[in-house]
Amino acid sequence: MKKQVFLVVLGLMVGLTACASPTPTPVPAPKITVDGVWGRTSPMMAQAGAFYMVIHNTGTAADKLTGAKSTGCGSVELHETYQMDNGVMGMRPVTGGAIQVPANGQVELKAGGYHIMCIDKKADFTPGTKIPLTLVFEKSGEVNVTVDVRDQGM
Predict the structure, then answer these.
(1) Who's near 27: CB < 8 A, 6+ residues apart?
(2) Tens of pLDDT along 114-140?
């Protein structure tokens, strides 16, 4: 009898252990930080301004910058610079609508490359002006930064 009870209890323990959830495997995730955020000076009569920065991803999964918003702008767009057939440089919304940020990597938004356009400026882009900017990522959500308006090359 004792042997039968022991075998039943042992069987229940083995069965319960088999039904227990395995330890979850960590899901790869991006880890976004942003530095060197600045905007180029431009007179108030200019309707647009540009923002630049370096976006770092120290996480184990890639992410995408899908948009941005700011109270200092009527609208905000992700742009890229490209060379037209006639050799002249042009600017357009980012192909595919997002900027890739690789896992364990970075992307630099700079003059002549990717950048963020502030359309219908609501702020005067004079040296020392601070403009709030919210970056929107596919996986990381919103990241708030402050744009420091300054003269180029500083």
Answers:
(1) 61
(2) 999 999 999 889 999 999 999 999 999
> Does residue 97 sit in helix, strand or coil?
helix
In a domain, 92, yes or no: yes
pTM recorded for the entire structure: 0.80
Domain housing 68: 32-143
Residue 117 covered by a domain: yes
- 């601070």: which residue's tokens? 130
Within 2-140, strands assigned E span: 32-40, 48-57, 63-69, 73-83, 89-93, 99-101, 105-109, 115-121, 130-137
116-130 in b/e burial notation, b at 16+ Cβ within 10 A? bbbeebebebeeebe
* Predicted confidence (pLDDT) per residue in 78-88, tens digit: 999 988 888 88
Structural domains in the chain (count): 1
Cα distance between residue 27 and residue 61, in whole Å: 9
Count other Cβ atoms within 10 Å, centred on residue 65.
25
Residue 10 placed within a domain: no
Q: CA 91, 124, 33, 27 torsion: positive or negative?
A: negative
Amino acid 93: pLDDT: 92
pLDDT at 148 over 80: yes
